[in-house]
Amino acid sequence: MSRKLHKILGYYVPAFFEMHVDIDADDLTINKLKPFEITVLFHEYIHFLQDFATYYGLNRIYVYSEYMHSVINRIYRNSSDNKICVPIKIEDNADNVLLNQQIQNFTSGDDGGEYGIKDFTISDIIEDSDTLIDNPDMTSISNVIVSSLEGDMVIFGAIAITESMAYIMERLCSPSAFKKSPSFPYRAAEMVADYYSPHFSDDPLMVLALCDMAQMSSNPGACFVRVMKGIQSGQLSFNSPEEIYDHFYSQISKTMEGEQSTLLLGFQGLSNVVKQQIKNYLRNMPILDTYYEWIDRLFNFAWEWRKNDRYFLLKMARHHDLSTNGAFGFCICNVGTPLMSNNRGSYFKISPKGMNVDIDVEYFKAFSQVEQLFSQGLKGCALYEWCCKSPQSTPSELCLSTPWKKVKEERLCPYALLWKHWNLSKYDVV
């Protein structure tokens, strides 16, 4: 599963609410940043919104959460000698974790490498499918293979669409301060749209709306191409980006159980599940009231957006000055930011209006560190620099080699708190 979106001028860590901006500013307060700096931050902030306000983003969190739940239960059952051998490889699909991961990997598509593909001119688009491991519900999943005149061949999936959407927003909302980025993945959606309908792709707001709505599906790449082929054939026609939203909101689909559903019902159902999963990472801990409150803020905001203001993103995109963009400011005011870092190794976070400044978002980075221990065998904790600058932490050499052993200390860091809370205190890692 992809760890980061992307690394040109920053990156965002999907499912774990963390963003890095490639700037030196010592204060990431929005109104104190230079135009270029706020543009970089804005791009990554769009990824943050995509994480909890799209069906695909929520599903990605669900996949990670189910993996963690499965691994911990397997540790309880199988580690009779109180030792955990990492990385932990799940080899059966008894709890659908393998299937979920496989679908996630297939639908994510390619990112073009660490720094993207500078020159990419589409020569052909082929629809294909990937075979899934044995399961009772589905045998394969669609993918979109894009070839270029330059000789590259990539899978057009969720990563390309999320980056394309963020780059369109960046160009529209900050036309004088954005930096030109590689063709793939940053212009992938526009290029794919142009392949099927140059008239449609001429309007970035149309492409933006389709990117957003494609992410409200379980397979954004296939969804995007399906709509574009409908436009090419004349079966679909849109006169405004608003009509794209209206089309998706009006669609009736069937669940695997055969029940009728809509975009909103599907989003609401998954949102409720994921919200509870995230809360359950640290269940029934009164000292973390702000953690639970922030999660509620995120998911309530996303639901109000999708239910009552479906064109919200268009409002943001049509205001061409980030310093006065009311929609962007509305987001900051209502949900704040995830954990942010800069080039100097400093960490920042902006709390929503009316909330305590200490909203405990650093726990999500701790979640990611434990997940990477289990999935990749990475034993050091990347929160070390954060803890070195936090008066409430007790960093030591253990952080860089065996952070789980800090569970024996009186004052628990976020990593150690998780380890204890998940009843892993008696286990050592090998």
Key structural traits:
globular; 11 strands; 49% helix; 430 residues; 18 helices; alpha+beta; four-stranded mixed β-sheet; three-stranded antiparallel β-sheet
Question: Which helices and strands occur, and which strands form pairs?
Answer:
Elements: E1 10-13, E2 18-21, H1 35-53, H2 55-78, E3 83-84, H3 97-108, E4 122-131, E5 140-148, E6 153-155, H4 158-173, H5 183-186, H6 188-196, H7 198-201, H8 204-214, H9 220-233, H10 241-250, E7 252-254, E8 260-262, H11 263-281, H12 289-308, H13 312-317, H14 326-335, E9 339-341, E10 347-348, H15 362-376, H16 384-388, H17 398-401, H18 414-421, E11 428-429
Parallel strand pairs: 2-9, 3-11
Antiparallel strand pairs: 1-2, 4-5, 5-6, 7-8, 9-10
Helix pairs in contact: 1-2, 1-4, 2-3, 2-11, 4-8, 6-9, 8-9, 8-10, 11-12, 15-18
Average pLDDT rating: 92
**Low-pLDDT runs:** none
Measured as a percent range, the helix fraction is 40-55%
Query: H/E element string?
Result: EEHHEHEEEHHHHHHHEEHHHHEEHHHHE
Strand content: 5-15%
End-to-end Cα distance:
23 Å
> How many individual helices?
18
Query: For the largest beta sheet, what order do the strands appear in spatially?
Result: 1-2-9-10
Query: What's the number of extended β-strand segments?
Result: 11
Structural class: alpha+beta
Integer-rounded radius of gyration: 22 Å
Principal-axes shape call = globular
The biggest sheet, with number of strands, parallel, antiparallel or mixed sense and barrel status, is: 4 strands, mixed
